[in-house]
Design goal:
By secondary structure, the protein is of the alpha/beta class. It contains 4 helices and 5 strands.
């Protein structure tokens, strides 16, 4: 199995220069976005990574720097590429996510 991790941001929750701490994980033809903070769509754009190249998003927790970009990501994916993203969320995070975000 091949695995590659590419950081698309290494900054804090309020980082302007280094984006939020999010990453792309590539494995066997599948591209997973690890968290989707508010700066993730812009970071992907800056790296020339089209949103339709992402196969799924793993959400670790519901702080804004980890979920704040989901709405933009989902809308752009739906209306530009007619695609729905696979969202990977643990059960405890999922209930927090739906009730608080």
């Amino acid at each position: 199995m091949s695995l590659q991790i590419q950081m698309i941001g290494t900054g804090s929750a309020f980082s302007k220069k280094y984006f939020n701490n999010n990453a792309l994980i590539y494995s066997n033809g599948f591209t997973l976005l690890l968290d989707c903070g508010a700066t993730a769509p812009r970071a992907l754009y800056a790296l020339d990574v089209s949103l339709d190249r992402i196969d799924g998003i793993l959400i670790s927790h519901i702080h804004a720097d980890h979920v704040g970009g989901l709405e933009e990501f989902a809308f752009r994916l739906k209306y530009t590429y007619q695609k729905r993203i696979k969202l990977f969320v643990s059960d405890p995070v999922l209930s927090l996510f739906w009730n608080n975000s």
